[in-house]
Amino acid sequence: MAAATVAQKQRRPNIVLILIDDYGWRDTGFNGSKFYETPNIDRLAREGMVFTDGYSASAVCSPTRAAIMTGKAPARLHLTSHLQGASNRYHHTKVIQPSARLELPLEEVTIAELLRGEGYRTACIGKWHLGTKGFLPSDQGFDVALAGDEAGSTNNFFYPAWLKKVTLDGKPGDYLTDRLTTLAVDFIKSNKDREFFLYLPHFAVHTPIEGKPEKVKKYDAKARPDDPQNYGEYAAMIESVDESVGRILDTLRDSGVAENTLVLFSSDNGGVTSREWKNRPVTSNLPLRVGKGHVYEGGIRVPTVVSWPGVTKPGSTCSEPVVSYDYASTIAEVAGVTREKLPAMDGRSFVTLLRGRPGKVRDLFWHYPHYSPQKGRPAAAIRNGDDKLILFFEEGRVELYNLKNDIGESNDLALTQPAKAAAMRKRLEEWLRTTGAQIPAKNPNYDPAREFEVGEPMGPITSK
Known about the structure:
- It is built from twelve helices and 16 strands.
- By secondary structure, the chain is α/β, with parallel strands linked by helices.
- It has one domain (12-450): Alkaline Phosphatase, subunit A (3-Layer(aba) Sandwich), CATH 3.40.720.
- Strand 14 (387-392) and strand 15 form a beta hairpin.
- It starts with a helix and ends in a 22-residue tail after the last strand.
């Protein structure tokens, strides 16, 4: 065995977390897409473990990112909306959505801070969307922080136009996904002789839907109207993301660190199925119901893959549900952070699952007390085993589904199984109380004719 390989084995694992923005559960080849081409993401799936029931912590981006960083549920953090939507601008809806934090509080301990305390070199390269000056990645445990601030999207994926929203150098014509990947590759190469944590949160495949012209042309030519996934420009963006994954995997291999690196690939919420972009759906999450902005499966079930050589069985799958507030505790265990150093977390490490052993059935929770731009309504949800219950705050009604038999959530069982619905609702409401979740209030000024009329912000919760 070469000396370099021996040295790698003696170090704690490197960790690479790749987060794609608005990437739907069905947007990968390994989950059944026939239109999008994802050979590198599929390669990662073949080399690792696919979580068929992987979930985001929220139906929108900022809350999921906060949950990933802290291991805490968005409800507990009071960071339950994307930053631009954190101030309630709807004055005439059925309920008044609560205001939410505009940044991740500094008193929260991030996974980057934990790993840096263990000697890891840490980097955040890409979208942050958890606060502006004073609350940036460099303030939250990252040694290297590039391209990330409060921005939830870029205005353009090509340089220099991206500079209007993303502070990152480049050359004329550079594509943002490629530029972020190059920076990530450079980080891996320069830190291959030490333990590192690389967080690579892409701006893609969030709007604006903007792919490289040659790729758009290819997918436009293969699009079929009978396949609901048929948007060539979006497919081109996915191919660029897939190429990014391939470059990262190749760099890990060529740097001699692949065998001692855990790679986690996921998305911050489901794919966009509303007509918010050019009056057409961006993608299709079928057979899942709807998409981003909803607590139905299409909004929160996301592609989730973990490859950990020597631990995860290549080509394996796990059907036990995991959620992105589990990532921090999982990464901490992989890195050898002792229990005494861990802050309180809502998430549970799934290292046991990565080793191929069964876990314990538990309740998973979601809390999205907002109206989303995708026409999602304020709601909370609980999943236990195959059963999922959704509580809608406007009317206080619930819906109950058995996901094993009805992954598309088309058969509401709340009326035919009232005892189960009542028991799950009780557990959900108790969790909401325990976490201090903010509950929308009835609106005395409700006016259906003016329901989504935009007014002045009612004010966010801010952190000191």
